[in-house]
Amino acid sequence: xxxxxxxxxxxxxxxxxxxxxxxxxxxxxxxxxxxxxxxxxxxxxxxxxxxxxxxxxxxxxxxxxxxxxxxxxxxxxxxxxxxxxxxxxxxxxxxxxxxxxxxxxxxxxxxxxxxxxxxxxxxxxxxxxxxxxxxxxxxxxxxxxxxxxxxxxxxxxxxxxxxxxxxxxxxxxxxxxxxxxxxxxxxxxxxxxxxxxxxxxxxxxxxxxxxxxxxxxxxxxxxxxxxxxxxxxxxxxxxxx
Length: 241
Hints:
Blueprint: E1 13-17, E2 26-27, E3 35-39, E4 44-47, E5 52-56, E6 63-66, E7 80-88, E8 95-102, E9 107-115, E10 118-123, E11 131-138, E12 144-152, E13 157-162, E14 165-166, E15 171-172, E16 184-186, E17 199-207, H1 213-220, E18 228-229, E19 239-240
Antiparallel strand pairs: 1-17, 2-3, 3-6, 4-5, 5-17, 6-16, 7-12, 7-17, 8-9, 8-16, 9-10, 10-11, 12-13, 13-14, 13-15, 18-19
């Protein structure tokens, strides 16, 4: 099936989490086929931006995670984009979308979250020294917002996106992302019991590429994830995004 010319090639996708399971673990529709383990409480299912989504309750300390040793493709140290649809019920605290970040033992790599209703990303070159970029605008609770961040190693800039458009000033970052033995997690910070997501998450995608402005807008404008790339022989059905 031909890939629309304005969309990024799915070969850059290292994690594709539709979050449309009826219950239990979160499955990865990318060629890497990572399975994220449901932790804490039982993460519900609810109407998503596309299909269904998972509904997180912070009081139940819910998240999905996979250990660094078990994951494939999510140890990204170069260019990266993380995109997704978020629906917040409450932004009264910092709410984690996705991360490889553990404050214990200098095990920080990157994290993507909402803080004071603004979209924010943090990246570190060494596991402890953080570079932070934050959107200029806030997002509202009670509805879906498409949010993203990118690291462009051609321009050495980290940029936040809201609704497919760059938002706020890009921040300089001139080196690789730290490579640490840190789990990948959706919905909470690794192992420190804080910053749980409150609300729905849908279509979280991790790319090993800095999406261009036109690609980012095209990803935001997808209304159904309906182009395919075959998985390697023996891994299963084609990837659908």
